[in-house]
Every structure is written in C-alpha cells, then in structure tokens.
Design goal:
The structure holds 2 protein chains of 2 kinds. By secondary structure, chain A is mainly alpha-helical. Chain A has 10 helices and no strands. Chain A is globular, with a radius of gyration of 19 Å. Chain B is α/β, with parallel strands linked by helices. Chain B has 2 domains: 214 residues, Rossmann fold (3-Layer(aba) Sandwich), CATH 3.40.50; 146 residues, Coagulation Factor XIII, Chain A, domain 1 (Distorted Sandwich), CATH 2.70.50.60. Classes of the chains: A mainly alpha, B alpha/beta. Chain B: GO terms for molecular function: ABC-type transporter activity; ATP binding; ATP hydrolysis activity.
Chain lengths: 256, 424
Amino acid sequence: MNLLLLLDFTRQDFVDRYSGSVLGVLWALIHPLVMIFIFTVIFTNIMGARLPGVAGDYGYAVYLVSGLLPWMAFANTVTRGSTVFLDRRNIIGKIPIALAYLPVYIVISEAVTFLISMTIFAVFLIAVGALPGKAIVMLPFIFVLQQIFAFGLGLIFGVLNVFLRDIRELVGVMLTFWFWLTPIVWVPSVAPPLVQQLQETLNPAYLFVNAYHGIFVHGQMPDFGALSRLVLIAHAALLLGWLLLKWLERDVRDFL
Amino acid sequence: MIRAENICKRFRLYRKPSDRLKEILLRRSYHTLYQALEEVSFQVADGQTFGIIGQNGAGKSTLLKILTGVLLPDSGQIQMSGRVTGLLELGTGFNMEMSGLDNIRANAMLLGMSASQIAARRDLIVDFAELGEFIHEPLKTYSSGMVMRLAFSIAIHADPSCFVVDEALSVGDAYFQQKCMRAIQDFRARGGSILFVSHDMSAIKTLCDQAMLLEDGRIVDIGSPKDVVDHYHAMLLHRSHQGDVPVTINRPVTPSEPEPQASERPASPLAGTGEVELVDLRLADAQGRRIEQITSEAPLTIVAELRARRDLEQPHYGIGIRNRFGHSVFETNTYCMGETPPSVAAGERIRVEWRLAANLIKGDYSISVGVGNRPYGTGSFDEILFFSHDLAMLTVEMDPDAIRYDGYFNMHPKVSVIHEEAMA
C-alpha cells in the first residue's frame, strides 16, 4: 500500500462522486459557496444576529462557517471511515491490501474538500474585510490533529461495523447529537456555566472547534493546554483503532 | 518459489456477524467451527506447475485466498518470492463504471505496480487483451469473456512470481484460452511458478509437474499428477456408493515408469469393497502366449480372473487402457456394450476375456480393470466392487507393415486424390 495508490483512491473518490454530472468537480465549490451565502444572508441580513463581543456585521457568519467547515470534514471522515471496509469489500476480498491504511484516502479526500471550501471562505473573508491575523498559521496543525482523531474514530467504527451493521446508523445519530452539543451554531456564553465547563473537559470536538473560532473570530492563538490535550486524545483514538484492527483483522477478512 | 508450511485455517461460523462482538463482550462461545484447512504444506519451485484438485468445499479457494494474502491463516507460514496474481473469480477488484483503460491503471496499481511500470506495460496489456475500441468503454458494457480477457492480461503482465490458473479461464473462448496457455507457458519458461486449480483432470495430468489432492481441508495425496488424479477418481467412485458399503481406497502404487514385474504386482484396488478379488490379469497374443509387448495392429487378449466373495445379481466388467500420461485411450464395460453377464454366486471364480485389436501408436500403456454391480444411467453402478489402474503394463511396438502416423491410434484411413478434370 503506497502513497500513489492512496492518491489514486482519492482521485477516484472525486471522480465517482461527481461522475455523470455536467458540472463535475465544480460541485465541490458550489456546496460551500451556497452554505456561506445562506448563513450570511439569513443570520446576518435577515435575522440580524450579532455575535456578542465582536464588532462588524459578519461576525456571526464567520463564527458559523469557521466552525462548520472543519466539523463537516471531521464528521464526513468518521462517517465514511465507519463503512470503508464494507464499501471496499470487493477489493479487500481480492487483493492483499493493508486494512489500516485504507481509510487514509478518506482523510485525504475530505482534506481536499476542506481546502476547496476554505479557499472560498478566504475569498469571502477578504471581501468582507474580516481577515484573520497571524494565528492562521496554526490552522493546518489543528486540522491535521482533528483528522487524526477522525481517522482513529473511523477505524474503530469501521472495524465494529463489519460485525454490527447498526454501528453505521449509530455513528450518524451520535454525530448529530455531537454536532448540536458542540458550540458550532450556538455560542458558549449563552449556555449555563456547567455546560461550558463540561465542554472543556468532556468534548474533544470543542477543543478544535474553539481553536478555529479563536483564529477566525477573535484572531487569537489557540490555547496550547487545550491543543496538547487534543494531541493526546487524537493519538489515543488512533492507537485504539489500530490495536482493534490488529486484534480483529483476521475476523474482519473472514466476514467480508 | 512458494513454500507453505502447516497452513491451518478455521472458520468460525456465526449465525450473524454481531455474534462475534457478543462473544468478545460476554466471553461465551457463539460459533461453530469449520476446519477449512489443516496442516497443509507444500512447495512449488521456480518454473514448476503445481496442480490442486479436490471436490467443491475441499479448501482449494481458501488456500488460494491465503496464498494471495486476502485471508490470514490461523497458523502456519508462507514464503513467497514475489506477488501472486491470477484470475481469481474474475476481475480482481474491477470498477464496472470505469473504462477498460482506467481499470488497467487502477488494477495494476492495486497489484502494487509503480507508475513507471504501469506506463511501460499499458500497451502490452491492451494489445494482449484484444478488446479493440471497447477498451475505452466502461466495463459494464463488457461480456464476461471480455472482462476475463482484461483480467488475465493485467494479471500476467503484473510481473508475478506465481500465477494462479483457475476455472475462471474457461470463461474465455477457445482462441483466447489457447493464447492464455501460451502466455502461461512463456511465463513458466521464464521461471515463474504456476498454481493450477482445475476440475479438468486430463489438463492436470498434462500440464502439472506435481499435484495435490485436498479433501476436507487436508492433503490426502501429493505427488505425481497421474497418481494423484487416479486417487481422486477412486475417491469419486467411493462417493457414488453413497456410503452403503464400506469401501477402502488405496493410494496408487507409485512408480508407473517401466517396471519389469508390473504384471505380477499385487492387485490392491484403488477403490473397492474387497468383495471381488483380482486373482490374475494377463495379456496374451493371438496364440494365447503370455506377453508384455505387442506389435501394433496385432490381436490382443486381456484375461482377468476374478473371485467374488458374495452374490452379485447384475455384475458388469470393465476394461481400460491408458497411455503413459494417464490419459484414457480406450475404456468400456459390459454394460456399455449392451451385454448382460450372468449373475455370480459367492465364492465363484470368473474369467473375463477381452479380445481387442491393438491398433495403438507405439508406446507404453497400462491396463485398468473394474467390476461393478447394478448399473444405472449411462454407465454408472450402484456398487463398485473393484477398480484399479496400472494393473499390467503393455508396450506396443510399431508395425513395420502398417502406415506411419501420429496421434493415438491407427484409424485405418483410405484416401483418394481426384483431379479436377476427372470430377466433371
């Protein structure tokens, strides 16, 4: 299993997703564009929502999009990771392929989508004059950590899903809950203090979402205590996923 | 080179996959075991063809999957000098939506070829597959034979150290099958090993250097293809008894190469109930003299003396002649000839005399004898009481007075050559 093959899987992933459509890969641009447009128009122009403590008309739109884009990359990676072995069973059953590396193409593919969305977001930020400060250099680092975490979770659910197909649905439900429990659409300050504290201690997603918010909304460097916790959690998930796969690989292959 | 040592594979059968998780959580067993392979060891040298035979469910596919690395064995070791490719149930991970060319690239990459290798081989693969303009069309528009052409073409050009030939090859038409066989032979000549899995026993005998017979995941026999195939046939005869009579199967006596005392070899049947015994088998010429060698075209008599240990209500007697590759040259039995031999009482001695014309091409032949009871269908028997190959050897010398020919036997051709003027 080499990088070339993974990149080809990624390429094929995009081809498959947009094959037969006239606009093709352009759709990868249209989706984030529409999202940014709707959030801006509805929340900023129609509802007139303002972010507490942030000047400027577009504060809330920036807050929403800067949390939502990484979350989508995260959630998609986990969801698709959880079905990767079943989706690719025709290859796994025919060609000796390292199972642990297979989900990497999903991580890359989602990273590319994220990059495209981020580019459009950057254009938007330039247009409204809300450019983030030099804290932006931390963005790739946080994103990599987030995707390592997603990869680990994807592996765990992917292995379990081979034995229990309900896992895939459970992952969907879990991610919906997780999305609404994480301050992406809402602002932490509106929640009771207890919930805010729980975010810090119990929600790994808050660690990276909050870091993005810091960068894009407040122009702050991320909190390094929080980041080092994210490093630990992400790698723990990765290790757990990898161990689970090593332990059950024979069964996974037998069941596929 | 391939070396497999003590490969064991057990499948745990669960009623549903989630029982595996229940098992881990509750620490109780929810499976039944199925031993797919047990202590399978063999070795294939470079440039050798190794045949694997056995009935459905004997473990052939599981073994191939383990060799290709798609399944992991429970124990045992595999050493291999490179990658294994083959048709393996057609289309190793093809994407039906993609064109032939794209599939070549994706598939070659999956097999572990580098970008430069793929670029170098692409045209060779396309040329070999001979798909014409279809190579640009998505695979879903292909016939199964065309998919097989593409799969074979990629597999043989992927620089394998071992190539697996299985029944999937028979999807191709006769022309392409021939082309495949040539490619496989070239591959073998270059030092590649071949694993040949087939139900075509004469192909196994012709093509393989060694063969292995699997039954319920165990190696029943391993050795020269001819012996192993005989053993397999004996096993099938056993099966046709449906277990109503205890049958013993003996491994064929090995060296079938020239052996002077061949005709005096103790008659241990390949398969049989032991209720009929071959007392004597002799070959005789027109004058009734015992012979081991005969001139082609001369009359040949084969005499089998048998003793029955029990009553046989509808006995039938069979004879077979096989060449040195173990291919049947001629075989028949009294049932197939429309004869109805009288019934036999226990303890009775029977002499069966076959008179044949030995118009065979020069070479070494061996004699097979069979005794069955209660025939049905087109030549099957409820009971096979005695069946054995290579009971006697016969050397046929060329007849200096006959025409010269090649093939199996003299069909005594008559020929006329007529010129066009005479036709009008």
